[in-house]
Structures are given as structure tokens and as C-alpha cells.
Amino acid sequence: MNAPLLPGHPHMAYRGTDLFCEQVRLADLAQAHGTPLYVYSKAAMLDALAAYQRGFAGRKVQICYAMKANSSLAVLQLFARAGCGFDIVSGGELARVLAAGGDASKVIFSGVGKTRAEMRQALAAGIGCFNVESEAELEVLNEVALGMGAQAPVSIRVNPNVDAKTHPYISTGLKGNKFGVAHERTLATYQRAAALPGLRVVGIDCHIGSQITEVSPYLDAVDRVLDLVQGIEAAGIAIHHIDFGGGLGITYNGETPPAADALWQQLLAKLDARGYGDRQLMIEPGRSLVGNAGVCLTEVLYLKPGEQKNFCIVDAAMNDLPRPAMYEAFHGIVPLHARSGATTTYDVVGPVCESGDWLGRDRALAVHSGDLLAVLSAGAYCASMASTYNTRGRAAEILVDGSQAVLIRPRESAADTFKNEILPS
Ligand SMILES: *Cc1c(COP(=O)(O)O)cnc(C)c1O
Fold it and tell me: CA 363, 367, 372 angle in degrees (round to 5)?
């Protein structure tokens, strides 16, 4: 067993037979805090951010962490202290940013269904920009802002109609998607925005999808967005910032996405060539900052051999790791303590009463009941998507920094899961 077994997880490696996160033996954390347990490497998050910062060295850029990927307060605090703003998609996320000490003026608010109450909350907090996703939303935001005697800073999310070549559920930049304003309607929408007294046009944005592993969709999107900027500015509407969204993929199972700095070198060359290199830029990375900084530890409860399939039943489930059930997504699964000996092929499944409750299919593992496993790439879209289905309290979360491991969220008890419920008298 050696480090290449964990591709993409720079701060997780075997030392001898035991898997470590930075200087901390993961089995020790499982022992101390129980399982399932999310464990994040602070260094891995900061390294991922540093790759973007290198890529943008010398440029005007605001990196807005797309916090829905992992919205734990300690993670937000880490990125806020590193200078990040935040891309939010709800009023609840804004409350989290403020609770974590984030700066409202560096918040941008995306999402197709912002309510009036959320708009008021964001205006009162003084967020940096609303990424407006439809013509109808523009009218409502104008009304809400005027009602508060305010002017809302807006960017319009354009749908560049490029294929991000990713899973259909996480592709967002094609014509058939619910996101953004159609390419052909963009200029008219900007003209409307510029005419509304409650709005102040500040930028343009796009976000074409998630888990993108190729450069070409980004290059296409940059071209299409710059074409639009050219047209909008020719019509007399100044575009202060250009926001290219997030979406860069990570290695789950052999994918080879470009590194953030290499990707941005190419995209900035295109911006330079077209004369937009000195614009204020924004990006909204989520998964690529946190995904491979985290693992979820789980214990093998039972091995259940079968005629067609062998099952390895573990104590983590679809409520803790929803991506396989939602998108048939792949997570690597490795032992915390490597055993020698023959492997058996298992479907690794959780205890939840759903056939969709599987974490990995056809995995070759040498395991006994009581063994501990790490589900890899669990830093993004796992804890933040977790539910209490089957009245399973949400798992605890640990942030590792060198040899220190800090509990950043205790395990939820069953009582926690129903503490706000009311029995009618
Ligand atoms: C989810 C989302 C992101 C981040 O996507 P990743 O694939 O996690 O980088 C960025 N912008 C918007 C508008 C989003 O909805």
C-alpha cells in the first residue's frame, strides 16, 4: 500500500499499513469520535485555493467559494480568512457566511428561485452582487430594492449554451437547463436592467456545470461570454466584472482534470488576446477547493455473501454520502488499515432501507467486520447534502491541521433530529 492509491488526495497517505490525514492517523479519529465521520485536511483546502491564486497572480480577481459544496462554519471561516468571498444560493447560506465571520460585500447570490425575503435579507446585509437568473427575477428584485430605498447590484447569469461534457444532472450551461438567461435574450435583459431604477448593473456571469474535466468547454464559454460583453458595452452598458463561475472537476476515479493554475493560464491568455485581461474577474469554485480534502470514515458492520453479489454493509449510508444515490457517482473506498491477503468483490452498502443506498459497486476489498474504511473525495457535496433520513443523526466533522484534529461539528443525536417537532395535544 502506498500513496498512489489515493490519487488527488495530496494530504492523505499510508504510512506503513495505516492511512493518515496530514499527521493524524485516521483510525485514531474513528476510535475517538465514532463513525461515520467526515475528516477534512486544512492544508489540502488551502493548497487547492493556492492553485487558483497562482493562476491569477497579478490579476484583479475575487475568488468566491461556492459554499454549497461544503458549508460547515469552520470551512467557511478558513476560506474567509484566506481572503475568499462566497457564492451563495440561499438566505440560509448568507446567514452561515455572516456567522463564520465572512464579509457580506464579497458575497454573490446565485440561484433561480430567490424569494423576496431572501432579496431583502441580502440587500440589508449589503452583499456584493445578485447573479440574476431570469427576466422575471429582475423585475422582482427591482421592486424589492425600491421598497427598501436601495439599489441592488446585479449581474445577469447568461447561459452560454456550451456542453460541459459532464453528468446531465450537473450540467447547467445548455439551452435545456433551468439556469441563466438564454444567450439570445441577454442584450435585451441587460437593457431592461439598466432601465430599472432599483438596479445597478455591475457584471456578467456564467456557470456551465460541475465536475468538468476538460478545458474546451471553458474556452468556449469564455468566448461566448466575451462576445456578449462586447455587445452589451457597445449598447452603452458598462460591465465592471466578469464572473466565469466554478465547475472544475476533481479526480474521483482516474479523471484527469486540468490543474486550476494551468486552466486559468489558458483562459487568461484568451482574455488577454481579446483585450479583457485587465478586467475585474470573479470565479466561483466549489468542489475543486474541498472535494479531495475530505474523506468519510465508516465501519464495516457485516459481510453478507450472496449468489449474485457480496455485500459489505457499513455504518455510513446515502444520508451521509448522497452522491452515488443521486448521480450514480463514484467514490474511492479504501481501508484505514491495509490487510494483506485475498480480496473479495463487494457492493459496499449502507443500512438505509432503499436499494439506492449504495456507496460503491464491485469493489475488491480485503475486509472483516469491524474494519474501518475511508470513503474518498468526501469533502464536497457530502456533509452539505446530508440528511437525517431513517432518523440517522448527521455525522460529526473533524478539521485536521498538521497534528491537530479539531471537532468542528459534533455528531447529531436522535433527539437532535426531532427536537423541533411538536406533538399535538
Ligand atoms: C454549484 C455552483 C458553483 C460551484 O460548482 P462546483 O462544480 O462545485 O465548482 C458555482 N456557481 C454556481 C452558480 C453554482 O450553482
Answer: 100
